[in-house]
Design brief:
single chain; alpha/beta; Uracil-DNA Glycosylase, subunit E; six-stranded mixed β-sheet; globular
Length: 243
């Protein structure tokens, strides 16, 4: 069963020690947290994906945040990026609540699964190329096991490139030249998968206004329309202006 194979994969991910630099960083920040998290026990381990295992929409991010997912044990949980992401997912019907504060907070996803290109928090949020390659087999396995996927939302240019590389590795069609990343960029592949680009909901993007809440919400409205064709007209009519 795909579900049991996903459990086996996740058990492998959380034990991973392939990248010495990332192992050292994830554990160091957990031992010496900033004052606001003093006394909290950090997960300080690689993170699995989570969500609906029958999902038709996959969200692909960069990596756990040092004091977000690396602390709480769940990706996009306990940080500002998650605040933006799950509010948008809630507004478009993919999440049962708009917040993601800790692993036992009751958050449930419907028709959506969240994962990352790199499973450990990297220093400066910048994974090295070899670290990304070490993590790629986990993404390849997830793509194979999440057999109902129809839409992939790439949160940032690194995630966009990681998905295109994964397709190529799996033997799926990839256009040449490679389609460039951009917020709202859409690529439709012959196998029925649609790739949608979004700026990452990092503070660098949200504080500067490069990414606004309406812009992020519209990405998931487009994803919703792609998996629920009858909603496409309504989603298009309700499309908010960017900015």
């Amino acid at each position: 069963m795909p579900g049991s194979r996903l459990d086996t994969l996740n058990a492998t991910i959380v034990r991973c020690v392939r990248c010495p630099r990332l192992v050292a960083h994830r554990e160091t920040v957990g031992r010496v947290p900033p004052p606001r998290y003093h006394g909290q026990r950090y997960a300080a381990r690689p993170l699995t994906g989570f969500g609906d295992r029958r999902a038709r929409v996959l969200l692909l991010g960069l990596a756990p945040a040092a004091h977000g997912g690396n602390r709480t044990g769940r990706i996009f949980t306990g940080d500002r990026s998650g605040d933006w992401l799950f509010r948008a997912l809630h507004e478009t019907g993919f999440a049962n609540q708009p917040t993601s504060t800790h692993a036992g907070d009751g958050l449930q996803l419907t028709d959506a699964y969240v994962t990352a290109s790199v499973r450990c928090a990297p220093p400066g949020n910048r994974p090295a190329l070899d670290e990304m390659r070490n993590c790629e087999p986990y993404l390849l396995a997830e793509l194979a096991l999440l057999s109902r996927l129809r839409v992939v939302v790439a949160l940032g240019g690194i995630a966009w490139g990681a998905y295109l590389r994964a397709r190529r590795t799996l033997g799926a069609a990839v256009p040449r030249p490679l389609p460039p990343f951009g917020h709202g960029a859409v690529v439709e592949f012959p196998d029925g998968i649609t790739l949608i680009g979004s700026y990452h909901p990092s503070q660098q993007n949200t504080f500067t206004g490069r990414l606004t809440r309406p812009m992020l919400r519209q990405v998931f409205a487009e994803a919703r329309a792609r998996v629920t064709p009858s909603d496409r007209r309504g989603a298009a009519a309700a499309r908010p202006p960017r900015g």
